[in-house]
Design a protein that fits this description.
Elements (H helix, E strand, L loop, with lengths): L3 H20 L4 E6 L7 H16 L3 E6 L2 H10 L6 E2 L2 E2 L3 H24 L4 E5 L6 E9 L7 E13 L2 H8 L3 E5 L1 E3 L5 E3 L2 H11 L4 E6 L4 E2 L5 E2 L1 E2 L1 H9 L7 H13 L4 E6 L5 H7 L5 E4 L3
Parallel strand pairs: 1-2, 1-11, 2-8, 5-8, 11-15, 14-16
Antiparallel strand pairs: 3-4, 6-7, 9-10, 12-13, 15-16
Helix pairs in contact: 2-4, 3-4, 6-8
């Protein structure tokens, strides 16, 4: 039997969350799922239960997942070293085969995890119904703006068809998206998951874009959490090297989404249990808010 004090605490928690539940009812929240939240068993359960709860109270969570650590492990097994340029994985034909295999396995695991916690998840890749169309990405050489770098079968998004997501949302399903795009000739492309999440949030006119990371959020040179960032501040942090590597596509996607009308874009600490609920249903939040202006 629940104690009186525990009941009072639970009632207080519910009453505090109610305004957020009302505010975000029937709104889309795109969530990039990655990092420790994908590998730690306790955090995996926490994430799945958070997503299911958001759906139960009337929101429309859409999950986009990565799979970097799992891809690296498979590359190690076959004696292949992973290479990154400006946060993008160099993807030759053999690596693309591994990416497709690993992301397919990860996608099924996430679907099973959410379903096990009471949700109705459906797995997708960009190939399903030509959902995500992509072209080959040529990276700009940061040392010479006139040069480009070929990173293999890495894609840039040309179009996203939102109809399949809308259909799943209307049937109370939770879409789980693997970041693989398809070209005009049917070829597949590896696309950074942060980029897919940002573009999908824009296309779906999402209320929120939430990017789970392995840091408290965006940190300054002294390691202090920055709770809010503007485009001017971000440009300065890229220029002085504070933001680099894998944070570049993440912060770029966050900023593009904010500028494209996504009302709130958050980079949060996925190592915190129930980080998603803390961000969506409380004032405090657990990371960095990216502002459009």
């Amino acid at each position: 039997m629940i104690s009186e004090s525990a009941a009072a605490k639970k009632a207080k928690t519910l009453s505090e969350a109610l305004p957020y539940i009302k505010r975000f009812f029937d709104r889309t929240i795109v969530i990039k799922y990655g990092g420790n939240a994908m590998t730690d068993e306790k955090l995996k359960a926490s994430f799945a239960s958070d997503v299911v709860l958001l759906k139960l109270v009337g929101m429309n969570p859409v999950i986009v997942h990565g799979g970097g650590p799992q891809i690296n492990q498979m590359l190690d097994r076959v004696g292949k070293k992973g290479e990154f340029i400006q946060g993008m994985r160099v993807t030759d034909e053999e690596t693309m085969d591994i990416v497709e295999m690993v992301l397919g396995h990860v996608n099924k695991e996430i679907v099973h995890l959410i379903n096990r916690h009471g949700g109705k998840a459906v797995g997708l890749t960009g190939q399903d119904g030509n959902f995500i169309r992509a072209d080959k990405l040529m990276m700009e050489d940061i040392n010479d703006k006139l040069k480009t770098i070929d990173v293999g079968q890495v894609g840039k998004i040309s179009t996203i068809d939102p109809s399949i997501i809308s259909f799943l949302d209307s049937g109370d399903f939770i879409p789980v998206v693997a970041p693989i795009g398809v070209g005009e000739d049917g070829s597949t492309f590896n696309i950074n998951a942060d980029v897919v999440a940002g573009k999908l949030a824009e296309i779906l006119k999402a209320e929120k874009l939430v990017l789970l990371t392995n840091t408290p959020g965006v940190l300054d040179k002294d390691g202090t959490l920055l709770t809010g960032l503007t485009p001017k501040q971000i440009d300065g942090m890229v220029a002085d090297g504070t933001l680099s590597g894998g944070m570049l596509p993440k912060i770029g996607s966050a900023l593009d989404a904010a500028r494209s009308g996504v009302k709130a874009v958050h980079i949060i600490d996925g190592r915190v249990e129930h980080a998603l609920l803390l961000e969506v249903l409380t004032d405090e939040g657990v990371g960095t808010l990216i502002k459009a202006n």
